[in-house]
């Protein structure tokens, strides 16, 4: 049998065949008021459809349960093989009001990369 | 123009018509060496420097209220002193929002420096104003402009008596006007970061006000370089250990063509990396709806951007589409909110995390016993969960951490409870859980909170103004 050519074979799988998002994507995040944004970018173009299918707004909202107060919105950028998530109510009031170390949501990006999915 | 020096970048690939815009500062406080390296490391036509964040405006307003000759990014003046002879010799123009809430005073200070350097009669400074709404607020409110908070919907009158600054975001066009009138240096108040990059393109290529795709392209270029090295290897997650020589990181340069295509590159022999992955990280930074990146100049559609690696440290942008600008301008209001303070203590192994947790319990019980009323009390354990919260705690070996920093913050509308809180940290060193250190900084200081109120205003209510100062 020929090995699958889409690169999934090489992924490091953990228990139950799950793969951490950090194996499939990189990310950067920032803030707008009390909303953090996370841009999630596929490491290879063939990973993008996996992200679209598995990393839904509902899934991300579950992942960040207890860390954000508002809803999660998702936007697609197929041209950049990227998804953009808006995490509302994530920053304890945001900017200058926030007491958080990460008052500007700079590392919500890597927190999202902890998510485990089944590719 | 001076002929390219031996250290210059490769020749421009797409004819003489392209212009090179160098990003020199991503925020007030960015690397002081970057602008100097940008104008000496190879050929550039423009130096763009962004200084203003939301909170900066209120700080500058406070400085201006104490001394009417202040209220701008003071670092800009000594920087110009260092750069002006080079800028004059190489005919490099500058666009910057360093003017803050007092662009005229900033221009005068730069002018005085230029005189000292013997550049009298050789320099024109364009000053862009009209963004400052503080003195007009009551008139606007009286005329029914409620300036409702974009996030909460509340009208501005709810916090009117606590407003410290109010500025509309101006776009590229007043900067273009200053360039058309021969400005070598354009000093502005609250002009958008993207407008400072877009303006030289409009000026050089004579783009029309309704050329939405072109304006969107220039806006995307502006967004890409507005955070300085964050598109050229800085803060880049993908393959971060493989990014070379960040100590000498090259700041970005836009090489723009009249047809709206452009390339992001950096000077030769600089560190960092410009590739599709890193540029993409910057494109999604602080992104909202990617199909609607709204500026005073246009609406840019980030889902139309096509990226290609066009060479080493060179990414080509094409295909960008835009739509007409809205009839509103964003307004940024800063107002006094209250007070906060953050205290920290470090607990060491063994049981570092448990000791820090115990100290938190003790402290909270004492605060409650004192009857102090806070709007928020937030505890974080730095080294365990401060950045990733419960996601970090799941599955981590928290019982064996070598040390944990207890970080506890409080916020209140009044100063008194915050002030009292700051005296409750140090006692824990002697009367709380053991193995505690890290109190060298002394008692935490209460900080005033200046909060940010985003709103929209009818564009017709704002009239940008351009003035020329001859030096």
Question: Can you walk through the features of this model?
Answer:
The complex is a heterodimer of chains A (119) and B (471). Chain A contains three helices and six strands, in the order βββααββαβ. Chain A is α+β, with helices and mostly antiparallel strands and 119 residues long. Chain A has one domain (25-117). Chain A has a four-stranded antiparallel sheet with strand order 2-3-5-4. A two-stranded antiparallel sheet of chain A has the order 1-6. The longest helix of chain A has 7 residues, at 48-54. The radius of gyration of chain A is 15 Å and the shape is globular. Residues 1-5 of chain A have low confidence and may be disordered. By secondary structure, chain B is α+β, with helices and mostly antiparallel strands. Chain B folds into two domains: 19-131 and 169-326, no CATH class; 336-453, 2-Layer Sandwich (Alpha-Beta Plaits), CATH 3.30.70. Helix content of chain B is 28%, strand content 25%. Chain B has 13 helices and 19 strands. Chain B has helices spanning 33-40, 54-66, 76-90, 103-116, 137-142, 173-180, 193-205, 212-225, 276-283, 352-369, 389-393, 415-421, 427-431, and strands spanning 19-25, 46-49, 93-96, 124-129, 163-168, 185-188, 253-256, 262-265, 293-294, 299-301, 306-311, 314-318, 321-323, 328-348, 376-382, 403-412, 436-437, 447-458, 465-470. Chain B has a ten-stranded mixed sheet with strand order 11-12-8-7-1-2-3-6-4-19, sandwiched between helices. In chain B, a hairpin with a 5-residue loop joins β7 and β8. The two termini of chain B are 21 Å apart. The chains are: A alpha+beta (119), B alpha+beta (471). Chains A and B meet through β2, β3, β4, β5 and α3 of A and α9, β14, β15, α11 and β16 of B.
């Amino acid at each position: 049998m020929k090995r699958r050519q889409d690169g999934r074979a090489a992924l490091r799988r953990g228990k139950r065949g799950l793969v951490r998002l950090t194996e499939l994507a990189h990310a950067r995040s920032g803030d707008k008021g009390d909303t953090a944004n996370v841009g999630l970018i596929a490491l290879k173009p063939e990973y993008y459809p996996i992200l679209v299918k598995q990393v839904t707004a509902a899934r991300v909202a579950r992942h960040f349960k207890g860390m954000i107060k508002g809803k999660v919105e998702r936007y697609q950028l197929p041209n950049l093989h990227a998804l953009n998530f808006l995490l509302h109510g994530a920053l304890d009031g945001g900017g200058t009001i926030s007491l958080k170390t990460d008052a500007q949501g700079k590392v919500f990006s890597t927190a999202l990369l902890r998510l485990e999915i089944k590719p | 123009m001076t002929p390219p020096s031996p250290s210059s970048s490769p020749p421009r690939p797409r004819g003489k018509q392209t212009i090179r815009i160098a990003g020199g500062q991503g925020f007030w406080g960015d690397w002081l060496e970057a602008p100097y390296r940008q104008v000496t490391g190879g050929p550039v036509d423009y130096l763009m420097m962004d200084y203003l964040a939301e909170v900066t405006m209120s700080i500058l307003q406070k400085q201006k209220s104490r001394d009417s000759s202040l209220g701008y990014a003071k670092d800009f003046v000594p920087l110009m002193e260092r750069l002006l002879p080079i800028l004059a010799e190489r005919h490099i123009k500058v666009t910057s929002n360093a003017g803050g809430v007092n662009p005229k005073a900033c221009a005068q200070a730069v002018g005085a420096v230029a005189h000292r350097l013997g550049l009298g009669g050789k320099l024109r400074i364009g000053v862009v104003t009209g963004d400052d709404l503080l003195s007009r607020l009551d008139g606007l409110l009286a005329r029914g402009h409620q300036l409702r908070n974009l996030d909460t919907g509340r009208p501005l009158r709810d916090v009117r008596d606590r407003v410290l600054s109010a500025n509309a975001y101006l776009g590229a066009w007043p900067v273009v006007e200053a360039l058309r009138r021969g400005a070598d240096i354009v000093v502005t108040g609250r002009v958008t970061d993207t407008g400072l990059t877009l303006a030289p393109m409009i000026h050089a290529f004579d783009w029309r006000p309704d050329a939405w795709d072109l304006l969107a392209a220039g806006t995307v270029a502006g967004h890409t370089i507005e955070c300085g090295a964050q598109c050229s290897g800085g803060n880049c997650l993908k393959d971060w250990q493989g990014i070379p020589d960040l100590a000498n990181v090259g700041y970005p340069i836009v090489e723009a063509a009249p047809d709206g295509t452009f390339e992001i590159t950096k000077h030769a022999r600089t560190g960092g990396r410009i590739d599709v992955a890193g540029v993409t990280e910057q494109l999604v930074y602080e992104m909202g709806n990617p199909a609607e990146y709204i500026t005073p100049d246009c609406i840019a559609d980030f889902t139309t951007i096509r990226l290609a690696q066009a060479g080493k440290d060179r990414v080509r942008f094409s295909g960008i589409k835009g739509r007409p600008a809205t009839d509103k301008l964003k307004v940024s209001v800063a107002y006094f909110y209250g007070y906060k303070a953050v205290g920290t203590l470090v607990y060491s192994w063994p049981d570092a995390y448990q000791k820090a947790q115990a100290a938190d319990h003790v402290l909270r019980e004492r605060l409650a016993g004192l009857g102090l009323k806070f709007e928020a009390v937030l505890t974080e354990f730095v080294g365990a969960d401060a950045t990733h919260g419960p996601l970090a705690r799941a599955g981590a070996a928290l019982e064996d951490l070598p040390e944990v920093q207890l970080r506890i913050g409080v916020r209140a509308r009044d100063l008194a409870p915050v002030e009292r809180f700051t005296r409750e940290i140090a006692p824990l060193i002697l009367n709380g859980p053991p193995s505690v250190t890290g109190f060298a900084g002394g008692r935490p200081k209460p900080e005033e909170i200046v909060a940010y109120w985003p709103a929209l205003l009818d564009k017709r209510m704002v009239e940008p103004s351009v003035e020329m100062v001859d030096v």
